[in-house]
Structure formats: structure tokens, C-alpha cells
Amino acid sequence: MATWVSIRLGGARRLFKRDEPSTSAALFLISRRSLHYHKGQPIYTSVTGPCGGSLFSKLFLIKMRTRAPVFDIYCGGSLLAAVQNSKMFDDCKHFVDMPLKLDAEATLANWDTLQAQGPLSDEALRAFVATHFDAPGCELEEHKPLDFDADSTAYAGVHDEQYRDWATKLHKKWPTLTRRVKDLVHSDPARYSLIALPHPFIVPGGRFRELYYWDSFFTIKGLIASKMFATAKGMIHNMQFLVEQYGFVPNGNRIYYLNRSQPPVLAWCVHAYCQATRDAEFAAQLLPTLWKEMAFFENNRVYKEEHWVGHLFRFVVSADGPRPESYREDVESAHHLTEESDKRRLWGDIAAAAESGRDFSARWFESSGPHAGKMSSTRTSQLIPVELNAIMYANYRMMGELCDILSDIDGSKRCAHAADRLKQTIKQVLWNEENGCWFDFDLSTREHSRLFNDTNLFPMFAECVHDGFDGARLCSYLKDTGVLGYPGGLPSSMTPSGQQWDFPNAWAPTTWIAIQGLRACHQYEMAQNIADKWIRKNFNMWRSSGGKMFEKYNVVSPCYKVGAGGGEYDVQEGFGWTNGVVLDLLITYGDTLFWTPGDECECCGGHIQACAAEGQTGQ
Q: By three-state DSSP, how is residue 592 classified?
């Protein structure tokens, strides 16, 4: 008996026999010939088959993309390779953020003509780019949020005068980080790598000119603290738009990010907003979208072994080439490989590390061999990561609570069943009884990776703790590792790899999750101690830098002029999720945290006032 595969293209659905050898070719031809666009952007083509769509999941990853000409400029092709390999711009992201002056077809036709004339000089290539591309960032404009109140009293409850004044000034930074997509992008989107969003949004800052997925949750927490509910709601609607358009929220709203997502925290955003506003109607609007996003991860990011209670999730990405925004770095990382399939595997694992939001960390690299500790040994898909599974559990839990609000009994039961099965599997595979903590599971070594990463603590915030879990024992583990002994807070890891998500750096999102996780497990003293260090570090760096907030901090040095480092780019200033976390923590701890001016600063051997004065002088 023949098995049929259903292929949906736009509103039409056609059937093909599974046992026909031509089926795969037919799928490809249909996807190429039936080009479907929404306002110039390609629409994904869904492929479903028996067993919940698993028939073609390996070949097509459930979603096939019809390739518009603009993709041959920003996502691959000879023009992208030529510009990025020429080192015309120090940062590869610069080029792929540059809007087109002409339409994509004309640009590619002119490029083909130029190439046909023979080898290109650097001058000819520069002239071509100058003729055909505008400066990055011109597709966006600053926007003053309609719900922004410069005289807001949202932080009046912060008892410490210095911190209260700081919170007020951070609150006033929101308009400087708010962007809206210009009307010309909406009218002619095929000239941009930017995916046009319907509502204004907060950008991180610096080179990050677009909405970033998991950044948005922590930014939204700050917006809620500032009582800017309309702006927060608009950002959630933007992410809803992306899910409805593509089936998931991309890493950011650029077409070159469409092969990957980020930690899926849209349910967290909706849950936090509804908790703050009691807006049940909004929850009802968003729940169908949340189910769609969960389906994407359930279909494309799962891994299961026969003896496991259920499946677990991992970061895994299919890549045809280097990341466009980090093209040269990825080419260099694959320089030792000769087979194209091996290069694509490595590039996929590098993109998967970017999907994790922790790009990069030695956690994703080989620990032995000639490329140990280097991006050239990235193996993200070989790890079952603690945080992704905790996030998915939290999604089920939070969605279940939203279903309860809406009296959706079936949805609530569905969430409870999925959450319970996932919790059991997390306990079975990721919990280490000897250490009293969760660890990544290495599919190659068949062992836990017993290194400290702050992501080990995510299950506490997710409330994914098993019967008999002892929060005090986990605190003992943290003390034993030595991670609590640093003046600026909790380092991301204890591995000094030179990567930005490793020692000695710490980041706002994972610090916030660690604090909230400890609070959820009644470890209030340790949570407040970490919060106090983090707030103090951020504040003193803000003072000594003349009022700057950064994406990451060196928490090991007590010097307030020593910033974080590592990674593929310079430390960025702004900074959306850092500001959001600080504002949320100042609301949480506003009556217990107090700044003292006697902090020692090793660079001058004196007090923070001296360094602050010197820093101000140098501005």
C-alpha cells in the first residue's frame, strides 16, 4: 500500500507517493517553481508525512525555503564571498547589514557582468559595493515610545539614593535604544537583509542593530519594571509575527539568521507580560503562536535514546556555508578540513552554538586533540544542554498556567503531560547525584561534562526540580567550585578560554536566571549576595565609564576600569538586556541593596571615587 506525503505550498496542498523515487526531486522542483512571497520575503513551505512529519525531517528539516534573489546576496554566493574575503570591512556583519540601492536582480546581474571582465581588483570591488549598497542602519530610525514617561516614579521604591538615581537614568535610556523599521523597508523589503517588523522594538546596542530573540525577554523585564507595557507588548507581537511567518523566532530579524533560532523564551515573555497586566485576552491571542513555536523545537531539535523516559532537546542547525555575518571567522575555522561535508558539519555546529545564545564558549569545543579549545573543533550538536531542556520545561509550565487562566483544560493537561515527561528525562540523563547538580550530557563520551557553567542552574528557575532535590546541597556545590568568590558576581564558567562566554566574564541574562533560580529554591541569602555583587559591579563600571552600560562584565577583577573581553568582536555598549536586568533587580531588591563608596580598586590602589574621577576626566 502506497504511503502519501502531503506538501503544502501557499494555500494549496499536493500529494506525492512516498515510494516514488521522484518524490524528492518533485519536492525540490515545486519549491523552486512555485515561489511564494509575503511582501517580498520568502514563505516557508511545510512538508508533512507519516509519524508526525518525520519522513522528510532529516532531508528538509520540516521547512523548505524558496530562495529569493536577495538571499544570493546576503546569505551566500560569489558576491558575499568576494566582499567578506577581501576584508573590506573589519566586521563581516557590516556588509550583510548594508541595504541595496538597486533591486537584488539588477545587483546580481551587474555583479555577473563585472565578474565576466576578469579578475577583480580591490578598487573595483570597493567601487561596486559603494555603487550598489547603502550604509548599515539606515533602514531603521529612532523612535520615542509612546508609553515612555521621563518623569516616571517607577523606581521611587529603591531606597538607596545612588541606585535610585542610576535606575532613573537607565530608564531614560529606553528611547535611545528604541527603533522602528522605516516605511520604505515595508514598501520594498527585497532590498534589505532586515526582516521588517510591524512594531517598534528595543535593540541591544552597538553593532546589534536589530531585535534579538532571547535578549528580548530580559529587555521586556526591564520595560515592565519601567511600566512600559505597550512597548513590551509590541515586542511580543513582533516575535509573534516572526513565528507566524517562519514557524519560529530567528536569532534576529535578518534573513541571514533564518537557519537558526535562539533559546525559545517567547512563552516567558508572554507569561511575564500577563503576570504584570492580568491581560487574559492577550494570552488567548498568543497561545496558538506558542504552540507553533513549540512544534518547531519538538520536530527539529529533539534527540532520544531507547532507554530514556522521553526525548530531550539540543541545539542543531543545518548550514550550507559560513555564517554570513561572521564569514571570514567560519572560513578560517574550517581551514583544516578538505571535505565539503565536513566543513558544512562544522559550520552547522558553529551556527548551533550561536543558536544557544552563548557564542562562544569552550563548552562547545573539543577538549583534546590538535584543535582542542578552538572554534575549529566546535561540536555543539554532540551535547544535550541543560539550559535548553530547562527552558522547554519552563515553556510547558508557563503555557500550562496560561491555559489555566483561560480555562483551557485540554491545553493544560497537554502541557502537564509534556512537562512531567521532560522533567523525568532531565533527572534521568542530566542530573548528577554525586555532585548534586545538573550537567550537559556528552553523546560521544557518554558522560556528563562536569564543568561549571552558569547554565547548570537553569532548572531551578524553570522549577524543574525532582522530588528530593536539595537546594542547599546545590549551594554547597557552588561553594566547592569557587565560583562564589569573585567580587563582581558569578562567572559564566571557570574555563579561561579567551571566549566571551567563559571565565572571567559574566552576563546579565544568566546572572538573572541564577538569582531567580536560587530564590525559587529558597536560597535567598546566596541569591541576594550574587545580586548585590552584580548590581555593584554594573554601577561602578557605569560611574567610571561616564555612564556606559555593557553587554558583559569581567567579574574577577575588582578594578572598575577593567572590562570584559574575548569573542569575535569588541565589547558593545548600550545595552538592552543588561539595563533590563539591572532595573528588574533594583525593583526586586530595592529595599535591601545599598551602595558603599569604599570599594577598593586595584588599578590605583585607592577607592572608586579616584578611578571614577580619572575616568570622567578621560571622557
A: coil
Find, among 82, 134, 132, 39, the residue nearest to 324 by Cα.
82
- pLDDT one-digit tens code per residue, 322-351: 999 999 999 999 999 999 999 999 999 999
Q: Which of 355, 387, 551, 584 is catalytic?
A: 551
Cα-only R_g, the chain: 25
Cell numbers at 316, concatenated: 542543531
Q: How far apart are CA 161 and CA 172, in angstroms?
A: 17
Which residue in this structure is represented by grid cell 528611547? Answer: 175
**Is position 551 annotated as part of the catalytic site?**
yes
Distance CA 83, CA 89 (A): 8
Cβ atoms of residues 293 and 243 within 8 Å: yes
Quote the cell numbers at residue 336.
583544516
- Quickly tell me which residue has 506558542 as its cell: 290
> 492: helix, coil or strand?
coil
The active-site residue out of 72, 215, 355, 359 is 359
Please give the backbone phi and psi of residue 491, each rounded to the nearest 5 degrees, phi first.
-65, 155
| 306 counts as catalytic | no
Cell of 392: 522547554
CA distance 265 to 353: 17
Q: What residues are paired with 454 via a beta bridge?
A: none
* Distance, CA of 395 to chain centre: 16
Residues 509-537: pLDDT tens digits? 999 999 999 999 999 999 999 999 999 99
**Interior angle at CA 529, CA 527 and CA 534, nearest 5:** 95
Q: How does pLDDT run across 547-589, given as a tens digit for each residue?
A: 999 999 999 988 777 777 666 556 667 899 999 999 999 999 9
Alpha-carbon torsion 379, 494, 578, 587, what sign? positive
Q: Which amino acid is at 285?
A: Q
CA 459 to CA 454: how far, in whole Å? 11
Q: What is the DSSP string of 232-243?
A: HHHHHHHHHHHH
Contact 558, 487 (CB under 8 A): yes
Q: Cβ atoms within 10 A of the Cβ of 299, count?
A: 17
Q: Which residues make Cβ contacts (< 8 Å) with residue 398, sequence separation at least 6?
A: 267, 268, 270, 271
CA 329 – CA 318 distance, rounded (Å):
18
Name the pairing type of β-strands 37-38 and 383-384.
Answer: unpaired
What whole-number percentage of the chain has pLDDT above 70?
Answer: 84
Count the neighbouring beta carbons within 10 Å of the beta carbon of residue 87.
10
Q: Residue 249: CA atoms inside 13 Å, Cβ hemisphere, count?
A: 28
